[in-house]
Amino acid sequence: MTGSHPVYLDYNASTPIKPAAVAAMTELLGRVGNASSVHGFGRQARRAVETAREQVAALVGAKPAQVVFTASGTEANNLALRGFPDRRVLVSAIEHESVLRAAPDAPRIPVTADGVVELAALEALLVEAGCPALVSVMLANNETGVVQPIAEIAALAHRHGALVHCDAVQAPGRLALDLTALGVDLLTVSSHKCGGPQGAAALVARRDPVALLVGGGQERGRRAGTENVAALAGFGVAAELAHAELAEAPSIARLRDALEARVRALSNRAVVIGAGQTRLPNTSCLALPGAKAETQVMALDLAGIAVSAGSACSSGKVAASHVLAAMGLPRRVAGAAIRISLGWASRDGDVDRFVAAWGALAARPARPVA
Ligand code: PLP
User: Which residue ranges make up each domain of the chain?
Assistant: First the structure.
């Protein structure tokens, strides 16, 4: 890394934890108590868990009893998709792997070239299913930031008797979240994507899933296992702060828009994927045809700037992102796409550093992206 401090522009992978969440956790880590124990130590732990449940419920406009705590967004997605075994599962083609791999045989709902779920195709799949379905569509895509018309999707699915799950992991602090307005039956949120610690998440469930983990009957029989009290307390504080963070969304969007305008001014090779769509305020999926995504990520890392590739590495081979492939983007664009994601601690100076390093990359001779 070069001289000055490293710049973190990978909030969609994991956000920096907020100091108030650390403080809440630190206090609880110093205390003993299993939240299921009846004695005073146990009751104190239980109070911390229930406070967190209320904070997470408030974040999404749900009732505390609807919040099922899990250890990750991945687990919450698995619980939603595998928790209704009698239903035919339908998932969008751009879901996170934790949805796609939890339902490997589920028909994929296609998306438009702009990355938005095709409602007519969803309707056809609902008719074809011939039995009660469970539809899973994310609120905002983690690679492109493109926001899905979830309320419309939920209304359509409900007309066909389906349940609707929405992976809203990328939304807290960036989009208003309300279970009733979205009209979904199941919603996933994850602590480390909104200023809380890793290892805590929730499935907010208006309909109870069959538990994946059985044992001591915690989480009202929906997810067994001793609660991670400190992590849940940190998640609760982060959930509360995510509400307030929404007020910052326009200034984050201004930073992101400035970044995109500046790279476009530097090179006419720049392609902003999903630019015409409603997107998360913090996310930019930026392709530089003629420069492989992994080369860009490594060069930026050497310059002290952390971003992600829009491509995934599998068995040593870099495969095009399934999201960009589902949008039908040509390989020369999809294979040259990186994701820049900003957040609560991002500053103008971070964008300046990125633009300078990206400009150096764009000045290199273009090579074909195989
Ligand atoms: N869903 C989306 C859209 C994500 O971006 C991620 C993480 O990248 C997950 C689910 C998984 O969440 P977790 O990291 O808490 O398992």
Answer: 7-16+247-362
- Closest approach atom of ligand 1 to CA 138: 3
- Best mutation site among 148, 190, 198 for ligand 1 pocket (most ligand atoms within 8 Å of CB): 190
Ligand 1 pocket, 228 CB below 6 A? no
In whole numbers, what is the pLDDT of the chain averaged over residues? 95
How confident is the model at residue 130, as a pLDDT?
86
Fold classified for 7-16+247-362: Aspartate Aminotransferase, domain 1 (3.90.1150)
Contacts of 223 (CB under 8 A, 6+ apart): 68, 69, 70, 79, 211, 212, 213
313 tagged catalytic: yes
Name the residue of 12, 142, 193 whose CB sits within 8 Å of the most ligand 1 atoms, as the mutation to test its pocket.
193
| pLDDT value, residue 316 | 47
Closest residue by Cα to atom 5, ligand 1, is 142
What is the total residue count of the chain? 370
Q: What is the pLDDT of residues 159-185, one digit of tens each?
A: 999 999 999 999 999 999 999 999 999
Chain segment 86-141, per-residue pLDDT in tens: 999 999 999 999 999 999 999 999 999 999 999 999 999 999 998 899 999 999 99
- For 217-223, which contacts have Cβ atoms below 8 Å and span 24 or more sequence positions? 218/35, 218/36, 219/68, 219/69, 220/65, 220/68, 222/68, 222/79, 223/68, 223/69, 223/70, 223/79
Residue in 131, 194, 285, 313 annotated catalytic: 313
CA of 183 from ligand 1 middle (Å) equals 21
| Whether the predicted pLDDT of 317 surpasses 80 | no
Among the listed residues 324, 285, 317, the one whose alpha carbon sits nearest the alpha carbon of residue 115: 324
